[in-house]
Amino acid sequence: MPHDSPNDESSKNTELPDKMAIKVKSLETLLVSRGLVDPAALDKIIDFYSNKVGPRNGAYLVARSWVEKDFASKLLSDPTPVLKDLGFNGRQGENIIVLKNTSKIHNLVVCTLCSCYPWPLLGLPPSWYKSDEYRSRSVIEPRKVLQEFGLHIPKETKVKVWDSTAEIRYLVLPMRPEGTDGMSIDELSVLVTRDSMIGAGYALTPEKISE
Ligand code: FE
């Protein structure tokens, strides 16, 4: 199963699986031809979430949670007011649940039906997240799928898969990497990859960044 590595933000991410691309295109054509959707407005929305938001908001939340315990507990127990205060709410992010990865539990997020994803926190989903293969296999054999992403989850760590819906989207707080003591929120946020906030990756170590 091919996956994009955390550092590989290549054009592969923008490609939809063939079947889905055709369905989306047909739907778009229909909506535009009936005057229900303005293609320019659609382009603006896509540009906003793919280029202006991206995964930066999510990375900030993770990095701040690593540094500020109070912030982390608020984010985990009741994220809605925290996200609202920061302006990280809105379309496709109305109800967010934040999940914390630890040495005891590893959370992985999927949308088995389509591609529900927390847009205001992570931007638009990568192509693998929308693929039939990921959507079906991650619930059946999550450890194997994680292995293919390069994650070897110890046997004693429980793997929990969360199925997103139109109502509920998830954000994973990855574990803080070793060797990051004393780093600022800004420095830490560079280590937080998009995949780590889906549960399909680990946050990077500072050594990895300087490679
Ligand atoms: Fe969905």
Bound molecules: fe (iii) ion
CATH class of the largest domain: Alpha Beta
Q: What is the count of DSSP helices, taking H or I runs of 4+ residues? A: 11
CATH topology of the largest domain: Nitrile Hydratase, Chain A
- Give a short account of the largest sheet: 2 strands, parallel
The Rg value, from CA coordinates, equals 17 Å
Task: Give the percentage of residues in beta strands.
Answer: 5-15%
Distance between the termini: 26 Å
Concise overview:
This protein is mainly alpha-helical and 211 residues long. Helices cover 45% and strands 10% of the residues.
Structure notes:
The chain has 211 residues and is mainly α. It has two domains: 14-53; 55-210, Nitrile Hydratase, Chain A (Alpha-Beta Complex). Helix content is 45%, strand content 10%. The chain starts with 17 loop residues before the first helix and ends with a helix. Mean pLDDT is 88; it is low at 1-15. The structure holds fe (iii) ion (FE).
